[in-house]
Amino acid sequence: MHNDMFIKQYLKPSTDGLSRQFTHSLPEIPDLKKCGEFIVQSELEDTFSTNIILKHESAGTGVRLVEVYKSSENRVKGTFIRLVGTMSLVKKGYPFLFLDAVVSNLNLSTGQQEELTTRVAIHFPQADIRGRDIFYSHVNKQADDAGLEYSMISIEGLPDFWGPLWRFMKPGIDLDVIRQLRNCAWNAYQSFYSQTEGKADFDYRPVQEQMVFKNAQAEHLMFKKMGLSVPAEVQAAFFSVLVAGV
User: Could you report the per-residue pLDDT of 9-30, keeping only the tens digit for each?
Assistant: First the structure.
């Protein structure tokens, strides 16, 4: 083997393969610039799972946004769960905001195949009661003004600091409503941090440990129930990009 061949031919970078016609414009965060791109991919049994993850930062506001485009698909059955613009938002010293944007042909509760459905969930863990009131009141008003029906639920098995989950669901594929709710979430988060004090020593470890270790394993088992083989290690890698580096 020639050293020159090894140096030049060892491993070529993968392309992300994501069709940009299905991606969203970014929320209107001032001075937001892309600062990283990640590809996390796995193939196990009949399932191919690919995460395209884009990281953005705003020097002016101190806000970091990470967004995810993902497809976990059983290539034999044609069943899939796709994240179409899932994102995390965080300003140093303030809690994380997570928005899950899912289009799937599987029922996430029963694991049974169903018609295509669009789901959006907004999580605001580690926020105190006042912060949650400010944030969710702002989200709710925007959703009401847009005529969107939503609910608030608690998820069994999540720690108390996680708090309630805001949820929207409708039949079919509706990427416009995902885009709309991404903007709503940013507007509400901006309203929240402009009315509250940040903490220089804010401890993000509870959320990081919950996401990377516990949620990754839980979602691996959830995928398995639905006939999708997505390793816990891949879920942990995806979650670590969402919550690390604060």
Answer: 888 888 888 999 999 999 999 9
